[in-house]
Design brief:
Blueprint: H1 16-22, H2 24-34, H3 43-60, H4 69-85, H5 92-118, H6 122-146, H7 170-192, H8 201-210, H9 214-233, H10 237-257, H11 259-270, H12 276-282, H13 286-299, H14 310-316, H15 330-362, H16 368-377, H17 390-409
Helix pairs in contact: 2-3, 2-6, 3-5, 4-5, 4-15, 5-17, 6-7, 6-8, 7-8, 7-9, 7-16, 8-10, 9-16, 10-11, 11-12, 13-14, 13-15, 15-16, 16-17
Length: 422
């Protein structure tokens, strides 16, 4: 693979203040990642970006903006169905507030696009996020082997939580940020001429496995397959073999040291049978919630029932045995919340993101790791978070406007193959 031809844009003077001012957009993105384990503090960087975006709009208007038609199209496809759903929503206020959040996040992203168009260093994002992930990786492994992590948070004896304790969230976050770590390893290998950097995948994969999140496993598999295709196209058979060996050792080692992981893998494989009960057990009782969400969709198939309706309506109407917070399936969640109108719009938005991802991966443009991360966050079969939940859509929008920003930054430059990002 050709090395990343990034723009090195460091200040002419050694002033740290100058550097921070010039790189504040990248640093706010990294801050968004760093504070993920600490409640809703992850909203702070987004609020700052929103205020900066509104200020620049007030000062400069729409001058110096690239063509944002595709960006606006995706924003409208995801926002307008929520406004329509509010007509029949069980909780009108929460549905309208969610639509407002979507709109505000899209506006915040315009600032990142503006900044990256002027000055951007991809290494800060790639290596910065990769460094955070590796610190969290070894912190989680310390928790597993010692009984508590560096912050004193204990291992619960079943599933690894790491710095996200007590939330079982580390595997999901790792899976969605995996393009950054894999890309960091790829760049280091290309620049050094050695492949030892791929060894970092072994402990990282072990943490994802020990987290016990099947949805994280599936997301990581999708991301890994994309990089496998890239390596295969370059006939990098030696690298493929080395990475495969690392993965086999990681998976094998993880199952040997964890009976809980072994049982969870066996339970997951049992779901491949035609037995509905085995499938329900393999998906952690998700079949029940899927049935309930489907019934709610049938109650309002055109415009949906709005956000935060499943827990109350599904249980009250006898569709679920217990109150579930969400459908645990992005596609079904969108269908239930916004009906057929929103589902078609969501598929259209996902189709646009998938197209941009496929194009950027095929031509190995400078934006492809960012598009890959955005696409993985938007997969219809994601089963961990609620699509219209605040954590999900902040992650989705952050990754989306980074992908757009990086693409606009390098639009006029030559990709690793003949072609451009037009």
């Amino acid at each position: 693979m050709n090395p990343e031809n990034r723009l090195i844009d460091y200040p002419a003077t050694p002033s740290w203040r100058t550097w921070f001012v010039r790189r504040h957009a990248e640093l706010l993105v990294i801050l968004f990642v760093i504070v993920q384990p600490f409640g809703e503090t992850f909203l702070l960087p987004l609020i700052i970006l929103l205020l900066l975006s509104l200020y620049v709009f007030y000062r400069d208007g729409a001058r110096h903006l690239p063509d944002l038609s595709l960006y606006v199209s995706i924003a409208l496809l995801l926002t307008v169905p929520l406004l329509i759903a509010s007509v029949s929503a069980y909780k009108i206020d929460k549905t309208l507030i969610t639509a407002l959040y979507f709109l505000l996040l899209a506006i915040a992203g315009v600032y990142v696009i503006r900044r990256f168009a002027k000055s951007f260093c991809s290494d800060i994002l790639i290596y910065g996020i990769a460094a955070i992930l590796m610190f969290w990786t070894f912190d989680a492994l310390i928790q597993y082997f010692v009984g508590h992590n560096l912050f004193g948070w204990p291992y619960n004896g079943n599933r690894l939580t790491g710095i996200f304790h007590p939330k079982i969230r580390i595997g999901i976050v790792f899976a969605h940020l995996s393009p950054f770590l894999i890309e960091a390893g790829r760049r280091l290998s290309l620049r050094s001429g050695h492949n030892w950097h791929w060894l970092l995948l072994a402990p990282y994969l072990a943490v994802v496995l020990l987290s016990g999140s099947r949805s994280a496993w599936l997301t990581l598999l999708v991301v890994s397959l994309v990089y496998f295709v890239i390596l295969l196209r370059h006939r990098a058979f030696k690298t493929i073999g080395q990475i495969a060996l690392v993965l086999v050792v990681s998976v094998g080692g993880s199952t040997l040291i964890s009976d809980q992981l072994k049982n969870r893998l066996e339970q997951t494989l049992s779901g491949l049978s035609t037995d509905p009960e085995a499938l329900n057990e393999a998906t952690s009782l998700r079949v029940d919630v899927w049935r309930g969400a489907w019934q709610l969709f049938l109650d309002s198939p055109i415009t949906g029932v709005g956000v935060k309706a499943l827990g109350d309506l599904g249980f009250q109407r006898g569709y679920t045995s217990i109150p579930f917070g969400h459908a645990h399936f992005y596609g079904l969640d969108v269908l239930m919340v916004t009906g057929i109108i929103g589902f078609v719009a969501y598929l259209a938005a996902f189709g646009l993101v998938l197209w941009k991802t496929a194009f950027s991966v095929w031509y190995e443009t400078k934006a492809f790791p960012f598009w890959l991360a955005a696409m993985a966050m938007m997969l219809p079969f994601n089963m961990h978070w609620e699509f219209h939940g605040i954590r999900s859509y902040t992650w989705l929008w952050m990754l989306l406007f980074i992908a757009f920003a990086v693409e606009y930054r390098y639009r006029t430059e030559t990709s690793t193959k003949k072609g451009s990002l037009k």
